[in-house]
Amino acid sequence: MLLAIQERCRWIPPAAVERLAASLGLTPVFIRGVASFYSFLSLEPKGKVIIRLCDDIIDRHAGLDAVLAAVTDELGISAGETTADGAVSLEVTPCIGLCDQAPAAMVNDIVLTSLTPETARHAARHLKAGKPLHDLVSPHFAGLTPQQRVHAQVASNIRAPGAVLLGEVPREAGLRRAATMEPRAIIAAIIASGLRGCGGAGFATGRKWEMAAREEASRRVVICNADEGEPGTFKDRVLLTERPHLLFEGMTIAARAIGAAEGILYLRGEYVYLRDHLEAVLAERRAAGLLGHAILGCGGFDFDIRLQLGAGAYVCGEEGALISSCEGLRGEPKTRPPFPVQRGYLGFPTVVNNVETLCHAARILDLGPDWYFAMGTAGSHGTKLFSVSGDCRAPGVYELPYGITVGELLALAGAEDAAAVQVGGPSGVMIGRDSFHRRLGFDDLATGGAIIVFNGSRNILEIVDYYLAFFVHESCGYCTPCRVGNVFLRQAIAKFRHGHASAEDVEELRTLSATIIETSRCGLGTTSPNPVLSTLSHFPLVYAAVTRPAQDGQQASFDIQSAIETARGIARRRSFVYDRDFSQ
């Protein structure tokens, strides 16, 4: 409801809050609390058009500063401001899932990719003149099908189609086989395949389905987590574009396995441009008898899917927070136990799997668990989609068997000069050249899919600082270790960046990181120190190079010259005490 109000009014007016609260029997404070949680909902007026420039580290390295400068110059406003006529608002936002074609931007419900200062200026001029928004994509936009509109905006950049998901995929082969099987046999097949969750945690998919099916309940739910908010990850975006039928087939198979009649596709707000395309596919499947009542003519096999749009909150990628969001609440993680498979959406047993996992499940039912189990390694079966971006010639999605080395993937992507690789996004691990022999998979380097490449010109501490700023911004604020600890961690990194750190500060980084990990409530807090810990481990010389003992045995905790610079400007004179070359 808030999304609908935001779309119509461009903000959530007080009168709308009051009316919504009265109609739902809720308090205005509750409504404002939900609205204030999500980045794409606003309690302040916004322009009719909102430009959200992606501020990911990859976009920065790809020329974001010049793009932002061109837009601000053309519109006459800075980020966070709205033009005087209320036409256009300009904002920066974290990763929008387009790292393979950065710099990128969301403009209401469309996206612009591979921006340059020239194309960005043209777009700003176009919007300032009040011309149709969709003309930025194509003058024939209205006549395109939903799928054509998606392809007109975003390239899929499939670099290596593999044997499971991105090669030749027959329609509904897995679902037709599942319709002839008992639910327990479907679960047994998924268990035998060795399929593990592809979002990063790697929990055994079949075991998750089995636990949900065993719960005594009158209602069960299947949720697809399409909220891939981890910076550097965009492989689910490609599956939603190229394999939507396979995804919905996988959801339907999961529903038959656990006895669910309802499904939810939770689509991240940054992927709003995919909404019409996915709704069209759902409508097509209903018309073909692949969703709804008695699917494929099987009595009692009833299942349908609704699309739930997110509103800009990284933490909603965590399954408890995602369920909270689906329930119309702030996207805050739920206390465990109980686990979602026991009491999830609205208190009913709920299976939450991501897009890639559900697509794999459909293919396993098609060709059998032995076929899938034979690919990959002893602890990581099947193939994996890798989202490769950054300093490489061929960014995009690579479907490869588990067990490929980092170096082999870098060679495929044209990243021979890579000096550092962020495996698994900010919550993963950053490795250097001495670790490029390591293998990608649960046996060694686990990853949800993000592979971010940095060459030798990049500043490691700048990257760490950016990722910590991201976690500070995206923390739901529920628990103190995450809400406050990450701020302290970023302040500590600033000491290193400014040359004020001592060797003792290295140990302080480790201690603070351990505290955050041990005492945070959800996965965000337990992984947010990883940029610090992994770079301390793999790039110790970076920290050693900027630490120095003071000659008097004491270490300055801040730069006094920078601290008094503002005072100098106000007083219009220099400091007798701190300016050593001061002369009367």
TrEMBL record:
Keywords, comma-separated and alphabetical: 4Fe-4S, Iron, Iron-sulfur, Metal-binding, Ubiquinone
Cofactor list: [4Fe-4S] cluster; FMN
CDD domains: TRX_Fd_NuoE (cd03064)
Record flagged with keyword Metal-binding: yes
Domain (NADH-ubiquinone oxidoreductase 51kDa subunit iron-sulphur binding) ranges: 461-506
Record PROSITE patterns: COMPLEX1_51K_2 (PS00645)
Classification via Gene3D superfamilies: 3.10.20.600, Glutaredoxin (3.40.30.10), NADH-quinone oxidoreductase subunit E (1.10.10.1590), NADH-ubiquinone oxidoreductase 51kDa subunit (3.40.50.11540), NADH-ubiquinone oxidoreductase 51kDa subunit, iron-sulphur binding domain (1.20.1440.230)
GO molecular function: 4 iron, 4 sulfur cluster binding; FMN binding; metal ion binding; NADH dehydrogenase (ubiquinone) activity
Keyword 4Fe-4S: yes
Family statement drawn from the similarity comment of this UniProt entry: Belongs to the complex I 51 kDa subunit family.
Function description: NDH-1 shuttles electrons from NADH, via FMN and iron-sulfur (Fe-S) centers, to quinones in the respiratory chain. The immediate electron acceptor for the enzyme in this species is believed to be ubiquinone. Couples the redox reaction to proton translocation (for every two electrons transferred, four hydrogen ions are translocated across the cytoplasmic membrane), and thus conserves the redox energy in a proton gradient.
Alphabetized PANTHER family for the sequence: NADH-QUINONE OXIDOREDUCTASE SUBUNIT F
Protein name: NADH:ubiquinone oxidoreductase
Organism (species): Aestuariivirga litoralis
